[in-house]
Design brief:
Elements lengths: L17 E2 L5 E2 L25 E6 L6 E6 L4 E5 L2 E7 L7 E6 L6 E8 L2 E8 L6 E5 L9 E7 L7 E6 L5
Antiparallel strand pairs: 1-2, 3-4, 5-6, 6-7, 7-10, 8-9, 8-11, 11-12
Length: about 170
């Protein structure tokens, strides 16, 4: 199954696939044994930071594998800290900013500049030094723009930016 961010529900990509001994997926039982068998190949035509959600469920429903793939990530690193932006909706109406490598439970001030609208706020890292921040970057009266966010932690100051209001890069 696959579930693009522009669809309300998941859809079936392949009604049935089989797992070869080498771990590859194929479309026909018993034909997964050579280098040219009908293997499943996934292709993604992705906008920047667009996630692709996939799910495989066993025929008895007892096992499943889920994956989130971001072929064209937007990331940034400073010292031990890193940021990643995930497009949560088609035109970045909502963004998820994931931070990693900060100090445990650190209070991290940040400055957000979205098309000239400035927000000063802070977020607390979890015990593992990570955080997730959901952001709605749209600005009243504007159809698109750029959002830049800078985190000012004790040992790093990573920043990341992305364009919102468009599916273009």
């Amino acid at each position: 199954m696959r579930w693009p961010i522009n669809q309300d529900e998941p859809s079936v990509s392949y009604p049935e696939v089989y797992i070869a001994a080498d771990g590859r997926l194929c479309l026909q039982a018993g034909k997964c044994h050579d280098d040219i068998g009908p293997y499943v190949q996934l292709g993604f035509n992705a906008a920047k930071a667009e996630p692709f959600r996939t799910l495989m469920i066993s025929s008895d429903g007892k096992s499943s594998v889920a994956a989130l793939i971001i072929p064209r990530p937007i990331t940034s690193t400073d010292a031990s800290c890193s940021l990643e932006v995930i497009r949560a909706s088609p035109k970045f109406e909502v963004a998820i900013i994931r931070g990693k490598g900060f100090h445990a439970r650190e209070h991290i001030p940040y400055i957000s500049n979205s098309a000239g609208e400035i927000i000063r706020a802070s977020i607390d890292a979890e015990a593992d030094g990570n955080f997730n921040l959901v952001f709605a970057p749209f600005v009243k009266g504007k159809d698109e723009g750029t959002h830049e966010i800078v985190f000012n932690a004790e040992s790093c100051a990573p920043k990341v930016s992305y364009r919102w209001g468009t599916i273009e890069d």
